[in-house]
Structure formats: structure tokens, C-alpha cells
Amino acid sequence: MDKFILETKNLTKTFGKQKAVDDISLKIQENSIYGLLGPNGAGKSTTLKMITGMIHKTSGEIFFEGHQWSRDDLSDIGALIEMPALYENLSARENLKVRTLLLGLPDSRIDEVLEIVSLKDTGKKKSGQFSLGMKQRLGIAIALLNNPKLLILDEPTNGLDPLGIQKLRDLIRSFPEKGITVILSSHILAEVEQTADHIGIINNGKLQYQNIINHDDNLEELFMNVIKSGMGV
């Protein structure tokens, strides 16, 4: 029987008269990578911000490990939504040190996450001098500090060159073996197709498709058919 680390039921977010997220019911299987696909502005980031407590839901329910989500569950959730918030005058290690002090974590955790994201050899180089790919990996290292069971990554490869995308893809694929479930939000079909085990397709705030990825299927064709059907085309 499938075990779901996260479920949402009829999750809705309204801004004024606009429904940004409309009755979304996600099922995220434990130790998997779930690709959340959709055009820009579809409601992906808003959904993830509700799951991480960055914004309040208007209605619906969120369940984490079988119980009603509460802010206490954030200790088991790591997230990189939009660009990582870095102190650009500090090194990778110093950026992580600031967070370990805030979270009350041991310094040993710094070396562990730097090893995971392959940033152990950056020394005293300031993070403001990092490439975009290195900044993204440092953002992921920060999200991993609390040893989360669920890691949420919102468009993590935006702006990366092909080598940076491949390194990040390999890193993300390694997480389920470490007991970390990943939700990966993207509008890039190839990124999700090569990384995820399950997909959900959001358009106009609605979840229009959710299933295991079948690599024999044409994901682009599936995506376009789902989007068009949701638009009444």
C-alpha cells in the first residue's frame, strides 16, 4: 500500500476575487520525486507556499505524515522557493553557520550538507561570487540543514546552463535513497521527465492530472492534451 508523506484536500487560495489555487488535492508518495508541472502563473508556487507556511490557505486541508499539518511540521520540511536568500558577503560555510545558530543545530551538520551538494571546497570564497548553479546548490544545502523528510524545490534550474542543470538533476535524483521525498516544481517538461517518478499538472489553479510517469508516453503530448482539455480546446 502506498504511503503518502503529504496530501492536500481541496486546497484553495483566493486573492481578492481571484482564485490562484482551486480545490487542489495532491498525493505525494514517500521517498519519491513528485514533479509539479504547469505554465508560469498556473498556481504552482502558491501551492508550495501554502505547504511551507509562507502564506495561509483560504480553505482545504493539508496532511503531513497522516496528520493535520501544523507549523511544528516545518522542522521536517526543507524548501527552496524562488532564489535562495544568501548573505553574499559570507562564504558557503558562514552562510550555513548563521542558519545552524538560528536552528540550534551542531556545526557537524555544515560539513554534511556541503558534502551532499559538492560545495566543500569553496573555502573563503564569498557566495556573491558563486555561479548561479553554485548559489542554487547552496540554497539546497540550507534547505537540507534540518535533515528534512520532505524537500520542496520551486523551479530550481531556472537560469542554469546545461552542465549546472545536469549536476542539479543528479543531486535531486539522489535524495530518495537518503530518505528524502522531493516535490519539484517546474514548467520545463524535460527536467521533470528525467527526474520525477510521479507528476501533477496544474493549470489555471486547478490540478488537471496526477499519476506515475510512464516513460513510454510522450510527456509533451500528454501535457499539451491536459492543458488544452482544461481550456476547453
From TrEMBL:
Signal sequence, renumbered to the chain: none
PROSITE patterns reported in the protein's UniProt record: ABC_TRANSPORTER_1 (PS00211), ABC_TRANSPORTER_2 (PS50893)
Coiled coil ranges: none
Domain (ABC transporter) ranges: 6-229
SUPFAM superfamilies from the UniProt entry: P-loop containing nucleoside triphosphate hydrolases (SSF52540)
SMART domains, per the entry: AAA
Family: Belongs to the ABC transporter superfamily.
Name of protein: Mutacin ABC transporter, ATP-binding protein MutF
Source species: Eremococcus coleocola ACS-139-V-Col8
